[in-house]
Amino acid sequence: MSVCLMVVMAWLAVLVALPVRAHAGPTGDGIAQMATRGAGPADGLAPLPGDTRPVRYKLAVKLDAPASRYFVQSMVDFEVLKTTQRVVVHARDLKLESVRLAAGEEAQISYDAARQQATFAFAHPLAPGRHQLQIAYSGSIGEEVEGLFKVRYPSLSGGEKQMFFTHLCCIATGRRFMPQWDQPDLKAVFELELTVPAGLDAVSNMPVAKRDSLPGGWSRFTFQPTPRMSSYLLFFGAGEFDRITAAVGSTEIGVITQRGKA
Q1: What structural domains does the chain harbor?
Q2: Could you tell me the pTM of the whole model?
Q3: In angstroms, what is the C-alpha Rg of the chain?
Q4: What is the DSSP letter of 35?
Q5: Which runs of E-coded beta strand occur in the chain?
Q6: 9-54 pLDDT, tens per residue?
């Protein structure tokens, strides 16, 4: 599996034939209009300051399906390009519980809702070079195709089931899932650990490196690190899946379906 798996999984959310509300972001015409008039802060497209850039995101995500929320412990390696006392990232509709440097200093958090940006201010300057942010945050799992969303569908055995997917592109949807440098040119490596209710499967851009059964009815999937890539390519899905595979030379081709429809 590779980053291209996200294409298969994104379409799976459509193919299960469910009433999913459409993404409410800009259409192609809307994007063209913004390009013509210039992207203003109210569009959420204002660029970041440019004094920092991401290197690696490590995300430990836990899905609380009954509460329609998810909780994340994130460690973000980033590079400071010139001395600064603040780190500015994109964030939208997230509850940031705490932000601190690996060395221990806690940040003062502020939001600019119009720009869809969060600022983490520190008492001491950050020198050029590599640093790490430790971020604890949570978000809601909605039914619009933005960020992390859920899909309801009738199961083959009767009753209603749910699947969970991410959709992090094109405009301003990724920042609804995680605080990040949400610009395609600011590439990074992603390491994902996903904890879901036992009985659910999980897929992401990369193969599963390890699967653990946890107390309390949970399963934890640890995925191999991705290549260095744009943040909008990050993808994962969780649900009751079947998988069909075939080998083409040394490459395995896989298709994921709703369980029972392989």
Answers
A1: 5-20+47-258 (2.60.40.1730)
A2: 0.84
A3: 19
A4: H
A5: 52-64, 69-80, 84-90, 95-101, 108-112, 117-126, 129-140, 147-154, 160-167, 189-197, 201-204, 208-214, 218-223, 236-239, 241-248, 251-258
A6: 444 433 443 444 444 443 333 333 333 334 445 557 788 999 999 9
